[in-house]
């Protein structure tokens, strides 16, 4: 075999190996994106919009960060106390919608804190909560934004009602996670 034939063979083999390596890498990336999309649902699209090509890395970073937390389900007594507080907050809406929304915002924060979430700034809380509650984190963001506008008297009663509906979805999801579900989410 001539030197030229050996060189052509080596180049062809290296090109084929590169093509196979690229295909394996691309398939791995597609699987990773698909798994994150399934896990995070609508939050995946939110992350893609906010972080662009870095979305998968951001979501994986969130998972690693939350896995290091000592999250815990609520004890039955605490869950019952929070449920009573929620009913009281909801009832208050009729007489004072702004106060009810502010209380709902605080109540969500209290539940998250009782579950073991760090109480950093809002965006960090929303990112952390998205790992285990990706289907309702958009409710949390929407409700919180309305609550902030409400503090500036920049909301209608309908806006406040919408915030309460979103907070209720978040609240129910946070209260419903038990120890078995928490372990399934973490594995």
Main traits of this protein?
187 residues; 9 helices; elongated; disordered C terminus
Protein architecture, described:
- The chain has 187 residues and is an all-alpha fold.
- The chain has two domains: 3-67; 76-186, no CATH class.
- Helices cover 81% and strands 0% of the residues.
- The protein has nine helices and no strands.
- The protein has helices at residues 3-40, 42-51, 55-67, 76-92, 97-115, 122-132, 137-151, 157-176, 179-186.
- Helix 3 (55-67) crosses helix 6 and helix 4 (76-92) runs antiparallel to helix 5.
- The longest helix is centred in the N-terminal third of the chain and has 38 residues, at 3-40.
- The chain is elongated.
- 26% of the residues are buried.
- Residues 179-187 have low confidence and may be disordered.
């Amino acid at each position: 075999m001539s030197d030229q034939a050996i060189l052509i063979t080596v180049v062809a083999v290296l090109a084929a190996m590169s093509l196979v390596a690229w295909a394996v890498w691309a398939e791995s990336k597609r699987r990773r994106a698909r798994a994150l999309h399934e896990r995070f649902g609508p939050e995946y699209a939110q992350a893609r919009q906010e972080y662009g090509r870095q979305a998968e890395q951001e979501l994986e970073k969130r998972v690693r960060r939350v896995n290091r937390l000592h999250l815990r389900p609520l004890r039955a007594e605490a869950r019952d106390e929070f449920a009573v507080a929620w009913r009281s907050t909801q009832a208050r809406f009729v007489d004072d919608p702004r106060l009810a929304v502010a209380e709902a915002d605080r109540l969500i924060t209290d539940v998250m804190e009782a579950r073991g979430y760090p109480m950093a700034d809002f965006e960090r809380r929303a990112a952390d909560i998205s790992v285990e509650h990706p289907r309702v984190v958009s409710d949390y963001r929407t409700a919180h934004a309305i609550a902030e506008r409400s503090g500036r008297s920049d909301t209608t009663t309908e806006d406040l009602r919408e915030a309460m509906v979103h907070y209720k979805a978040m609240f129910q999801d946070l209260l419903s996670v038990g120890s078995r579900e928490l372990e399934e989410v973490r594995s």
